[in-house]
Amino acid sequence: MRWLNNERKRNAVLDDASHLLRRFGFVATADGILSVYPVGPTLDYKEVDAVLKRLAAEGCDRSFSEIVFELGTVEWIEVPWTAVIARFVDLARKSRARLRLVGLHGQPAAVVGFFDRDLVVSSLLGTRAASSSSPVPDNDRVSA
After folding, report:
1. For the whole model, what pTM was predicted?
2. Which of 6, 19, 68, 137 is the most buried (most CB within 10 A)?
3. Domains (ranges, CATH) in the chain?
């Protein structure tokens, strides 16, 4: 019966990965930038946590010089919104790659603005000159 348990675990892992790929897009560029963008208008703590854990487990901070979270489509960060920001801050502190949050507006911008005196949050909001190899088309890009 061990095989049945292993099959269930493998199916659970595949289901989790499939769910993340339906909720988030990932684009890697040749110049070492990984862009992650939510597909829908809400940002959920469990989904953010799962994505950030997956990025850490895969060693993305060693493979990419920068990880950009394109949040232009996000209209709402669900409760507990402080925990969502804390997850980004935690990864930023541990990561070798530079992390950035771009495209913030409305409630998500207000949530992040609540922490604007924190140096790590300020670094997450730092600007970078737009690259010609930007993974998101200019008409879809929202400036921070």
Report:
1. 0.76
2. 68
3. 24-132 (3.30.750.24)
